[in-house]
Structures are given as structure tokens and as C-alpha cells.
């Protein structure tokens, strides 16, 4: 399954982190923006072109030391069809460089509509009998709160095309507890959703003990992260909230197993805007991103056993 490819990339790079490429135009260095504005004026096309160059430069610097990227669809959709084209090109470029790509779309629907989402992001689209890959990500974040009707169409694509999903379980935002911490009988809503991930994942198990159904569990709630790691032995975690949102390396370590596997930790602004934090020359933005990826990796693995395949 696709999680096997992710795990292999993590072991190869010894790095359990993913870079969230969620670029606002304000994150892009001025010299790139001015170049695109000069050519395309101050248009959505110019913005999308600037973001694509920004993304490619970062990917060029990190692909050998980082296993994955996670582009958030909304940051591309805000630039219209030109932005969506940049999302596609970013996905393809990262894959060409050997990176695992998880599209952060948090899709949530049922029946034919979810089948369409699944085909768009994970599978193939039928065009007069020709099967064509629309976006081609390796995994997609999804909202499971419509139940199995919203997940089953995705599982079919996972089986057919060796893809994965990450289901929202315990998210990193401050108000997540308003719903997710409520009890259903003696279990919280998030624990119930976690159990469902284990059940759904039993249909798409990989060779390293993790299924094609992962879970989003936030770094900002380390106790719940530890609880979910113990309860969900076959569910791989995507862990947002490290760095800018307040999650620390010691806390996120609770999401990992005895082999240093079982989770991948996201950082978005911390990497994209590393050059601003360093106050270095903006021409050095991509190398600053690389330095931040290395810093983040060393921070996280300092709390983990050596990352290795299961015995």
C-alpha cells in the first residue's frame, strides 16, 4: 500500500517529517514575485507562477532529506484555475523527485460525489474510455464524519491504485474538543473515529504493519496522541501542529512506535518562511528551508529510537 512507500521514504531519509507547501503569496520572496508581475502583471496567473517557482525551488533543496510534501488545496484554489494548475504541477514535480505527496483537501461527501473526489485525487478519470490521472497524489486527507458512506469510495481507489487516506481524528485546532472530546457512551468522539480507522484499514493493510487508512492526530494534544498510538496499532498518523501551532518534538514523539515509525510530523510556515525567521538574503530562501528541515528532523529524532523497518 501507499503507506509502505511513505515508510520506505522515511527510513531512507531517517526523517519522519513532511513539509506542508501551503504558500500564500506573501511567503514568496519579492524577487520571484516581481519577475512574475513584470511578465504577467498583477494577476492570478502571476501569483500562481510565482508560487510554482517557489515550490520547485524548495522541493529541489529538500527532496533528498525529506520524505514527503503536503500541499493544502485551499492555498492553490484561492488563485483560481491557475492556482489549481500549480497544485497539479507541484504534485507532479515532487513525485518526479521521489517524494511522497499527500494532498490536504479534507474532502467529505458520500456516494457519487465522493467517488468523484476519489477519482480526482487518488485514482483515474474516465475520458471516453481513456483512463487519465487528474492530480496523482499518493494520499488525501479526508473528513470521516459522514461515516462509511464517505470512506468506502476512497477505499476502492486505494485498493485499485495503491493510494492512502488520512482521516481527521483528533485535530490540532483549539476548538477541536467542542466536538471531538465529547463522549459516545464511555468513549470520546475522536477515539470512536480512531476505532473506525482501524476497521476501515483492515481492508488495505501494508507489509510493514500499517494500513492505507491513516489518521490526523494533532501535535498540540500529546496525551491524546499517546492514547491513540496505543489504541490504533495499524494506523499511521499525520501529525499537524508542530512549531508554529505550539506542538513540540517531545510531545509528538508519543505518536511513534518502538521502531521510530507510525507517524509523520508536518511543518508548513516554519519551512516556507525559514528565510524570514533567519533574516537571511531572500535569494537564499530555499537553502534556509533545507536548514529548517534538517533542524526539525534532528529535533524530532532526538526523542525517538533509530528509525528502522519492523523485525
TrEMBL record:
Alphabetized UniProt keyword annotations: Decarboxylase, Lyase, Pyrimidine biosynthesis
SUPFAM superfamilies in alphabetical order: Ribulose-phoshate binding barrel
Entry-linked CDD domains: OMP_decarboxylase_like (cd04725)
InterPro entries, A to Z: Aldolase_TIM, OMPdecase_AS, OMPdecase_type-2, OMPdeCOase_dom, RibuloseP-bd_barrel
Coiled coil is among the record's keywords: no
Source organism, top-level taxon: Bacteria
GO biological process: 'de novo' pyrimidine nucleobase biosynthetic process; 'de novo' UMP biosynthetic process
Residues covered by the Orotidine 5'-phosphate decarboxylase domain: 16-289
GO MF: orotidine-5'-phosphate decarboxylase activity
EC annotation from Swiss-Prot or TrEMBL: 4.1.1.23
Record has Lyase as a keyword: yes
Active site per database record: 106 (proton donor)
Substrates-to-products reaction catalysed: orotidine 5'-phosphate + H(+) = UMP + CO2
Pathway: Pyrimidine metabolism; UMP biosynthesis via de novo pathway; UMP from orotate: step 2/2
Protein name: Orotidine 5'-phosphate decarboxylase
Organism, as annotated: Ruminococcus albus SY3
Amino acid at each position: 500500500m501507499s503507506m509502505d512507500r511513505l515508510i520506505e521514504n522515511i527510513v531512507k531519509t531517517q526523517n519522519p517529517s513532511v513539509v506542508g507547501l501551503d504558500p500564500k503569496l506573501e511567503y514568496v520572496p519579492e524577487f520571484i514575485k516581481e519577475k512574475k508581475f513584470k511578465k504577467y502583471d498583477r494577476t492570478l496567473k502571476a501569483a500562481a507562477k510565482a508560487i510554482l517557482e517557489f515550490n520547485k525551488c524548495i522541493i529541489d533543496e529538500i527532496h533528498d532529506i525529506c520524505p514527503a510534501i503536503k500541499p493544502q488545496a485551499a492555498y492553490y484554489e484561492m488563485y483560481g484555475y491557475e492556482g489549481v494548475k500549480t497544485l497539479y504541477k507541484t504534485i507532479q514535480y515532487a513525485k518526479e523527485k521521489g517524494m511522497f505527496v499527500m494532498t490536504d483537501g479534507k474532502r467529505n461527501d458520500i456516494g457519487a460525489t465522493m467517488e468523484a473526489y476519489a477519482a480526482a485525487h487518488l485514482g483515474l478519470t474516465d475520458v471516453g474510455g481513456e483512463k487519465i490521472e487528474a492530480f496523482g497524489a499518493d494520499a488525501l486527507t479526508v473528513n470521516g464524519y459522514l461515516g462509511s458512506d464517505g470512506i468506502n469510495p476512497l477505499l476502492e481507489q486505494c485498493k485499485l491504485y495503491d493510494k492512502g487516506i488520512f482521516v481527521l481524528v483528533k485535530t490540532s485546532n483549539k476548538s477541536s474538543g467542542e466536538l471531538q472530546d465529547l463522549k459516545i457512551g464511555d468513549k470520546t468522539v475522536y477515539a470512536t473515529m480512531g476505532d473506525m480507522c482501524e476497521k476501515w484499514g483492515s481492508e488495505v493493510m501494508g507489509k510493514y504493519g500499517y494500513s492505507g487508512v491513516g489518521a490526523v492526530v494533532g501535535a498540540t494534544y500529546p496525551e491524546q496522541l499517546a492514547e491513540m498510538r496505543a489504541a490504533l496499532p495499524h494506523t499511521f498518523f499525520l501529525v499537524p501542529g508542530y512549531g508554529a501551532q505550539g506542538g513540540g518534538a517531545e510531545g509528538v514523539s508519543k505518536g511513534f512506535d518502538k521502531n521510530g515509525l507510525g507517524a509523520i510530523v508536518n511543518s508548513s510556515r516554519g519551512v516556507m518562511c525559514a528565510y524570514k525567521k533567519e533574516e537571511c538574503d531572500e535569494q537564499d530562501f530555499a537553502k534556509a528551508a533545507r536548514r529548517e528541515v534538517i533542524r526539525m528532523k534532528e529535533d524530532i529524532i532526538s526523542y525517538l529510537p533509530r528509525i528502522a523497518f519492523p523485525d
